[in-house]
Known about the structure:
The complex is a heterodimer. By secondary structure, chain A is α/β, with parallel strands linked by helices. Chain A is built from 19 helices and 29 strands. In chain A, a hairpin with a 3-residue loop joins strand 11 (273-277) and strand 12. Chain B is built from eight helices and ten strands. Chain B has two domains: 15-202 and 297-304, HUPs (Rossmann fold, 3-Layer(aba) Sandwich), CATH 3.40.50; 210-291, no CATH class. Classes of the chains: A alpha/beta, B alpha/beta.
Amino acid sequence: MAHVSDLIASDIDAYLAAHESKSLLRFITCGSVDDGKSTLIGRLLYDSKMIFEDQLAALAADSKRHGTQGGDIDFALLVDGLAAEREQGITIDVAYRFFSTDRRKFIVADTPGHEQYTRNMVTGASTADLAVILVDARQGVLTQTRRHSYLVGLLGIRHVVLAVNKMDLVGYDRSAFDAIVADYRDFAARVGLAAVTAIPISGLKGDNIATASTAMDWYRGPTLLEHLESVEVGDALDAAPLRFPVQWVNRPNLDFRGYAGLIAAGRVAPGDRVRLLPSGREAAIARVVSFDGDLPCAVAGQSVTLTLDREVDVSRGDMIAAADAPAEVADQFETVIVWMADEPLLAGRPYWLKIGTKSVSASITEIKHQVNVNTLETQPAKTLGLNAIGTCNVQTDQPIAFDPYEANRDTGGFILVDRMTNATVGAGMIRFALRRAHNIHWQALDVNKAARAAMNGQRPAVLWFTGLSGAGKSTIANLVEKRLHALGRRTYTLDGDNVRHGLNRDLGFTDADRVENIRRVAEVAKLMVDAGLVVITSFISPFRAERALARDMLAAGEFIEVFVDTPLAEAERRDVKGLYRKARAGELANFTGIDSPYEPPEAPEIHIDTTRLTPVEAAEMIVDRLFEDFNEVAI
Amino acid sequence: MKIAMTASAGDTLTHLQRLEAEAIHVMREVVAEAARPVMLYSIGKDSAVMLHLARKAFHPAPPPFPLLHVDTTWKFRDMYAMRETSAAAAGMELLVHRNPEAEARGINPFDHGALHTDMWKTEGLRQALDKFGFDAAFGGARRDEEKSRAKERIFSFRSANHRWDPKSQRPELWRLYNARKRPGESMRVFPLSNWTELDVWQYIRRENIAIVPLYFAAPRPVVERGGLLIMADDDRLPLNPGETPQIRTVRFRTLGCYPLTGAVESEATTLSAIIQEMLLTTTSERQGRAIDHDVSASMEKKKAEGYF
């Protein structure tokens, strides 16, 4: 790996001293499938002398086997990593490459250009300081170019290079370059890309990559590498007010209580006044602790440990912010969400939201519109599918400290995590708070749940029946309620008949409507539990996430999931209401078990196998279990 | 230049400072979110850097997790010595696991070829993680080492049987890592993902980190086999008829099982000289390892099976 620096051989210590103070630039390359991205990155690695002899030998062999350059060295093979991809001749994920010059170290996110991989590009762009957008000189600005540029703007990348590639294939023609640049600038301004540097290149031939092209003397600007080495990307985060999301409380002994984290913005020094969010209390910084001794000051980007001048309650997920310019605190936001999962986003469904070091439960209260990334037009949407981008209102279950994303990526960007699969399903950017979170104090009622429960002489709970249509839920639920009533319990049953015709008559049977249906039922059940009742709900409630939502709304032990387990074939054979026949005939859409999924409970409190128990036996078993295992006794 | 800096508007961090801050951030996230983390410690230079970063991340507390060495019984003697001193210096518990089946069958690199790596390392690692119930394991792998690593996440999710599925990796955006998992599932976490070999050496030099003496050139007994210089580190190395170890001045660019690790002839006895040699050399780091030579996709295959 020969860095072309004579210093290495002559004075290694001087060389190392100089290189320790190199800065770091992270950039992404984006382009359409055949724009030559991988070739360009391979060329950058090659020209910056990052390719070793053994790698070159492997490359030469690979070029013969898989190459697309007729046996010549195929630089793209240097960067196309996984075996499966190599066989398909495409890259399918985000890969990170490293090279350095005498002035900078570079981390390149290589992101694929196919339509279905918005997710990967957004991932790569989220950490990039700069974007290189590749255009094939023969093709000009394509739909994909526009899409990539929109995403670059959306992710807040402020520095853009328009690399017009394959100039060798248009005879190094200036007018071809100028036309593309003019076309692009119009568009760039519309998606908020202010600073665009256009460079005519040939990744294959090496023109204007590391060395100035001899074939394009009409171009007088920097080569791509010169530009990457010299562009100033310091984004003024050092000068912004302090933002320090607390990552971990360091408490090795009773005499030390430190708050570990990475400074997201600003600088911090002993004596600085800070506000602790979301509590709003104030304190002063006592020490900036590091392994190498206390620091007089630390700046954005550093991982440090802070101590405060007083005992206050600060934990992971809280933010230490400048007292005179604290971050906002809110629980409702307008956001832009990029959806990254096959399962669509459903409004009302609870997800984990992670922002900074804070994880909260959150749901999308409204999908305002979806953006067509090809035309930039907005259109109404009820859900967001894979790779869709939409403006959504989000509500969190507790207030969080944040900045708008455009002010700070680390305090304004969030991910959404599916509560069942634990997959990262979406990424979001906060635009602004819809309303500031007030300290909502629920009026402390003397007549509370415990008082009402005592008056009723019972322990309130929800018996949540779930199972396929025709499984026998309502029959069993009805028997359970009769039995409880006979035992003097105050009960109420919520089922499709009394909910679908009134409270939820505006809802249909799409996945999104099913989620909302169950959410409302859960809220009503919660109020009834608060009123001291034993609530019986009888709904198919096919999704685990909504049942988990209902469970989370209630106190521990109040939610008793009853799985009425009837195999689909058996339910269909019984077909009491003739619904399966209609669904099979195509007369009923979104029918659970037929063309809409049922997710059985993984650990229900009570499991009823209806192929082995009659409804009466099942009801008796449930009531027995209530009294034995769930302590449903008179208070 | 240490991390300490004087205040002046518009400071930007150096690449080493940014890499250090990122690695520390990653380690703290794991400790905050995992139930039972562990640091895989292979005694090499990357492990030395990782351990040093862990000490920085949790100072003044000691790193709140143990070190785990998945031993093959075939490491260099200098490595075993270093293992004990490093763990003691960091104030950390050191766990050593040797695959009992490999031990019973006497699996070795001479008679068993690929099985040696499979049983001692791949299988041994799985056993150790299961035995102690670790749900997050730090590893020192870097993305620049090998092409399939370039696409691996910093938080790499593994199924309950330790498999890595390149198609179902979680997207990693900003500094947000999703460490949620179900019981039985685990994460491999690579705090040095964005470091290059040069970064590692520069950092060792800047921070004065102790490394195994084998990285420095010294006269050592070696035999030449299949283009690799193999050191006769102990008397278990079977010698071919007529083969006698020669004393040559050599050093190692990477450390593993001594019969599988090729030395290079070198006069580099200082860190500066090592870095100089690395910058002027023309072969890549893994070239001295026998493990990858078969096919270029071999590392990816190993990883899918649970190799680190």
